[in-house]
Structure formats: C-alpha cells, structure tokens
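Quick note —
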Amino acid sequence: MQTLENYLQEKYSKTAIASYQYMINQYLAYMGKEAKKALYQDVLNYIGYLRTRELHPKTLRNNLFTIKIYYRWLIETGQRNDHPCQDLNLQDKINRSIAVESLYTMKELEDFFEQYEPKHSFLKQRDKVTIGFLIYQALTVLEISQLEINNIDLEKGTVYIKGNVKNRSRTLSLKPNQIMLIHKYINETRTILLNRNEDPQNEDKNALILSQTGTKIEHHGISRQINHGRPAHSKMLPIKIRQSVIAHLLKQNHDLRIVQVFAGHRRAASTEEYKQSGLEELKTSIQRHHPLQ
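Predicted structure written out below.
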C-alpha cells in the first residue's frame, strides 16, 4: 500500500511536502485514532480549535487543504470510501494589505540582531546567521531553509537565493558583519551539528542551516528557532521582519524596481503595497509617541 509520504512526493512539490506533513501530523495528533473515521463535524471542530489559536485565515485554509489531502490518500489507498470534508470551504477573508504602521523600526531589528541570546549558547552562530538573512536580505523562511553551502560566496560577499513559486531568484550582497559570522558558523557550529547526524542525506550535507540534530532545517521551524524562550508579546515574526525591511527601503526613496529585485517580487505591484504615504507616516508617528487612550 502506498504510504502517505510517497503519495505526497508523487503529487506535490518538494518544497510543499514538509509543510503538508507537518500540518497533517498536527491534525493526527489532535484527532488520535478517530482521524481515519472522522466526520464532517469532527473536521469542523478541529478548525474551530485552530481558530482559538488565533491563526491567520490563510493558515487555516492551508490546514484544511492538507486535511483534504489526507482523506484523498485514504480513499485512493482503499482505507476509506468517502471524503468527510471535500465540500468544506472557509469564508474567512484574507487581508492582503501590508499594515505598514505596525512594522518594526530599523532600531528594533538591529537591537534584535545585536542582543540575541539563544537558549543553547552553542547555537548562537547559527541563529544569528538566520536572523541576519531576515533583517539584512529580507529573506522568507522558505528561502532560508533552501539555502545551500554553495549559494554562499564569502570572497565576493554574496548569497544566491533560489527562486520559488512566489519569488524570483536573485544574488544579494552580504553585510560585512555577516561574512565573518557565516564563515565561523560553517567551520564551527555547522560542523558540530552535521556530526550529530548519524545518517546525513545529501540535502543535509548541502544545506546551510541545520537543525540541532544535523538535518536540513524546515522552514516552519525557523520562527520557533529564533524566538525560543521569548515571551509571546515580544516574539519577532519572520514575515513581519521581511515586510519591515522592504518598507524601510522604500521609505528611504530607493527605486521601486531595485527594491522589487531585492525582495524577489515577481510583480511591481507587490512591492508597491509596502509604500507609506506622508499622511500614513504622520499617523504612525503620532500613534507610537502619543497613543490615544
């Protein structure tokens, strides 16, 4: 019988499989033995549980999408005859606009990088390399997880970012303080982490950022990685870091097309969403320094 893992590998892209497996495993952990015979209401109850965690509407939809995949696999492998949630669709509206007024200041980002302290001190190099890619190159967590050793050119001081369905490939400059940090990480911490992996696969050997067990890090774990031990109110969100960096570049009057290439946006309209008018900037400043009660 075809396993769920093989089913996913046959039908979906490699970059999506890890997320699908993670969300399906979360669902199975919640449902337990009842998962295989769950009914429409059971799936709806699970979505209700996810809502209590205040997840983004897009995340809710992605979870429902992966649950549907799980039941399609059960049907195709003869473990079930019907699909309990094929016709279930969520109506949550997704706000695609960028809330420029709530983004991080450059000082907040710089302080986060300079003052960062991990739970395990030996992981500091790895985590600061990751944070550097977030605040200096505005990479997405997916792009960071896909970075390989050969994408880094320390002599030229550049990093090559592979393209994906959302963003274009590009080569970006590294900051001077990143170059030495990455060099030390590759030759020190990364070597230790890889040696922890008793059976490293090629993707582990090639990956730049490794998990504590020496495997290629999954993108959905990066937020937990850089926020370990931080209270909920002070967590730094990777997507918000990226949005902040892009917005600040536009605020500094960098050419829109240059920022578009930097961010990897496929459409200029995606970059324009980060623009802040003079009135919006004034409102933001007032709210920050003189909040209304």
